[in-house]
Design a protein that fits this description.
alpha+beta; Immunoglobulin-like; TIM Barrel; nine-stranded antiparallel beta sheet; nine-stranded parallel beta sheet; 31% strand; binds ligand MIG; hydrolase; GH; Glyco_hydro_31_N_dom; hydrolase activity, hydrolyzing O-glycosyl compounds; glycosidase
């Protein structure tokens, strides 16, 4: 491991002067005197890849992160040969490469420096492993901020931090602990209102230093592999993130039920216990869509088996749970018990599918089942086989989702907590050691699981959740933040980690609500639920070796708060589903840290707690005990306090009063917020109205609502409904226009329009230019306007 600072090391080697260059369509090659080649590839006008070799030739190019379907193509590309440098110019960027030393500087077209090499590319030869320790350092200007990097448990802005990427089972991790479960070597730099991104697509152990070692230097390096990174230009952070997400891929839509509330514990068993828990949700009227079975459902922790004492007839149980509106989700770990009577073990052995040590023996390590071997998911044939193992679980038993754990991979009772580094992997036909494959092992397991669950769940949509992940895993799976702790500090961390994952391309994430280790107080649990319902993935989970952590495990007040907030999540399902659609279509993160929302406002650069849920709701959790409110930053613009409908203007820090059953929530003025009625589970009810809460604003605001069959793939054939509402507000009138796209017919027939914050008394309302449709009496009585869903224009005027 590299523990010394990268600068102190005296064995660094540097590129010498450029001796020739050539261009092949979108790629420009620069050759130096000492066998270094820099290959610069223009993927888009704003997306440039830099790849270096020190050998005089490039090895096979292969990446698990890059999505085959990523956008590429540019409008303009010119290479200019100057006296001291070469310049590569696109319609967005100018990239200057120094002839004397290969250093790179990237400018926008107004000649502002965006990112400049300090030492630039340099390396150290590794006699022990072969190849190089590859390094890059950049100049960092004062005032620069850094964001991204996946699940790092530290403040949003990474300025002044050094982080390490090596997937690790980090039970009960602490603030600032490194490394964690996931590896997302992507960061965003922001300086002078310009955002750019760097994606260092190197799967070896990598490090990033953001002005930690030296004040004006940012750097990144890896223990092996290539210096291979993508520069992604903004200038808006929104553009950087959506381009990174396009490059590494987006998921398909999850079934809507996956956005409901989920209940988990290690473990619910036997069947009777599972039934008691699920029945209690219904009895207490707390919406819930999914129940999880942790490792104890298996026979001696053997994957794809059932403990028949606890679960005598899984198929019957799963179908009874399903009749009661619960989807069953089961855990599957990578460790396969060494047991010659166990069919999975026997098959893998026969097919030679387990990972091997360098000298031949199978990699053996202890996990829950005892001594195990581990499938090499980096072999496509192994993935295919693994996918096939889900047939019975999904097609026959009716399980609806699979939970992949321990896939860092975790090994017990060994100092490094994982495989020895000499273990061999196929790496899709690019054989390598665990040094290179470690960080993508979990991703490839999740991918194989996804392939199987998807196949057997068809024509419905699959649901997968994984603990470990590398960039691009979002294409296959959702994820959670691992084994957190029931403390207030962890609530603070969960909030940041989920926001950070959100702008790191991994949108579908959440934390173990209430904390995995240790017992939360009722107050902490309530505060965690109040945050958790605003996370894309919303699940209570706990280690089960302390008290209970179901919503009713505390007191009635906590139970009521839990119900209130889960109800709110179910009401907001059309809003949540719409933000998911924007994520899968355009790569827009579902949660937006304030700096993402408004990077121009420097007040946002160091904010941690507040975030935008979707596009129009500002959420600020309460993170301390005994709070009667909190200070928070309200971003620029005009907002309504969700609880009081009081209007406030942003761009300032302020105190917000809240009760125990509230957290600060604000809705952007002009929003049309769609709501479903509360259901105990998705698809429980058929309803004939969609509620629209219209928050008045002077000026124009657009809101969209995406809907479809809530499962299945018909939406890909145009069977969806996409509503675009435009609100135009003036002193004494409001106009609501509606435009509908798509071939899907929603069940409801009407909208119930609630008008919030109108600055005038209504005198007339015209629907599609007909005035008579307004019934003042019923509007007064009911507080809403009922309008047929096919309307084009609602015109409200004041006296
Ligand atoms: O060594 O399956 O993070 O969610 O409940 C612990 C038991 C293994 C760790 C997971 C946790 C899960 C637990 N697992």
């Amino acid at each position: 491991m590299i523990t010394n600072t990268e600068l102190e090391y005296k064995g660094n080697l540097y590129p010498s002067k450029i001796v020739s260059f050539d261009q092949n369509v979108d790629s420009v090659y620069f050759y130096t005197d000492n066998n270094v080649i820099l290959k610069v590839t223009v993927l888009r006008d704003s997306l440039i890849r830099f790849r270096y070799t020190t050998k005089g030739y490039f090895s096979t190019d292969f990446s698990y992160a890059i999505d085959d379907n990523h956008t590429h193509g540019y409008n303009f590309l010119e290479v200019v040969d100057k006296t001291e440098s070469y310049q590569i110019i696109t319609s967005k960027l100018k990239c200057v490469i120094q002839k004397s030393d290969l250093r790179v500087c990237i400018y926008d077209l107004q000649d502002n420096v965006l990112l400049e090499d300090e030492l630039g590319f340099h390396w150290e030869e590794s006699y022990e492993f072969g190849g190089n320790i590859v390094k890059m350092s950049k100049v960092s200007k004062d005032g620069e901020s850094f964001y991204g990097l996946g699940d790092k448990a530290t403040q949003m802005n990474l300025k002044g931090k050094r982080v390490e990427n090596f997937a690790t089972d980090q039970y009960a991790y602490q603030k600032d602990q490194e490394p964690l479960y996931k590896v997302v070597p992507f960061y965003i730099g922001l300086q002078n209102n310009q955002s750019y991104g760097i994606f260092f697509d190197n799967t070896f152990r990598t490090f990033f230093d953001f002005c930690y070692e030296r004040r004006n230097v940012s750097s990144f390096w890896s223990e092996g592999g290539e210096m291979n990174y993508y520069f992604i230009y903004g200038p808006q952070m929104q553009e950087v993130v959506t381009r990174y997400t396009d490059l590494t891929g987006k998921p398909e839509l999850p079934p809507m039920w996956a956005l409901g509330y989920h209940q988990c514990k290690w473990s619910y068993y036997p069947e009777k216990n599972v039934k008691e828990i699920t029945a209690k949700f219904r009895a207490l009227k707390i919406p819930c869509d999914a129940i999880y079975l942790d490792i104890d459902y298996m026979e001696g922790f053997r994957c794809f088996t059932w403990n028949k004492n606890y679960f005598p007839d899984p198929k019957r149980m799963v179908s009874e749970l399903s009749d009661n509106g619960f989807k069953t989700i089961v855990i599957i770990d990578p460790g396969i018990k060494i047991d010659t009577d166990y069919f999975v073990y026997k098959e893998a052995l026969e097919k030679d599918f387990f990972c091997k040590r360098a000298d031949g023996p199978y990699m053996k390590g202890k996990v829950w089942p005892g001594e195990c071997n581990f499938p090499d998911y980096t072999n496509p044939e192994v993935r295919e086989w693994w996918a096939g193992l889900f047939k019975e679980l999904i097609s026959e038993i009716g399980v609806k989702g699979v939970w992949n754990d321990m896939n860092e991979p975790a090994v017990m009772e060994v100092p490094n907590k994982t495989f020895p580094m000499d273990v061999r992997h196929d790496y899709d036909g690019n054989p390598c050691s665990h040094r290179k494959a470690h960080n993508i092992y979990g991703m490839q397991m999740a991918r194989a699981t996804y392939q199987g669950v998807k196949k057997y769940t068809y024509p419905k949509r699959p649901f997968i959740i994984t603990r470990s992940a590398y960039s691009g895993t979002q294409r296959y799976s959702s994820s959670w933040t691992g084994d957190n702790v029931a403390t207030w500090e962890h609530l603070w961390l969960a909030n940041i980690q989920v926001q950070r994952l959100s702008i790191s391309g991994m949108g579908f994430t959440g934390s173990d609500i209430g904390g995995f280790a240790e017992q939360p107080s009722g107050e902490l649990y309530a505060r965690w639920i109040q945050l958790g319902v605003f996370h894309p993935f919303c699940r209570t989970h706990s280690s089960g070796d302390h008290g209970n952590q179901e919503p009713w495990a505390f007191d009635v007040e906590v139970l009521d708060i839990t119900r209130k907030f889960i109800n709110l999540r179910y009401q907001l399902l059309p809003y949540l589903y719409t933000m998911f659609w924007q994520y899968i279509e355009e790569g827009i993160p579902m949660l937006k840290p304030l700096v993402y929302y408004d990077q121009e406002d420097i007040q946002t650069h160091y904010r941690n707690d507040e975030f935008i849920f979707g596009n129009q709701i500002l959420v600020c959790p309460i993170l301390e005990p005994n709070s009667s409110g909190r200070r928070m930053y309200l971003p620029r613009g005009s907002w309504y306090n969700y609880w009081t409908n009081e209007r406030v203007s942003g761009g300032r820090e302020m105190w917000v009063d809240t009760k125990f059953d509230e957290i600060p929530l604000f809705v952007k003025a002009g929003t049309i917020l769609p709501k479903y009625p509360v259901q105990q589970y998705v698809e429980e009810l058929e309803f004939d109205v969609l509620t629209l809460e219209v928050y008045y604003k002077e000026g124009i605001e657009k809101s969209v609502v995406y809907e479809d069959a809530q499962d299945g793939y018909d939406y890909k054939k145009g069977r969806y409904s996409f509503l675009t509402f435009q609100v135009i507000g003036r002193d004494n009138e409001v106009i609501i226009q509606l435009h509908k796209e798509g071939k899907f017919e929603t069940n409801y027939t009407h909208y119930e329009i609630k008008l919030i914050g109108l600055p005038f008394e209504i005198s007339t309302i015209a629907i599609n230019n007909e005035k008579d449709s307004y019934d003042k009496v019923s509007y007064k009585k009911e507080g809403f306007l009922k309008v047929a869903k096919e309307f084009h224009v609602v015109h409200i005027t004041g006296v």
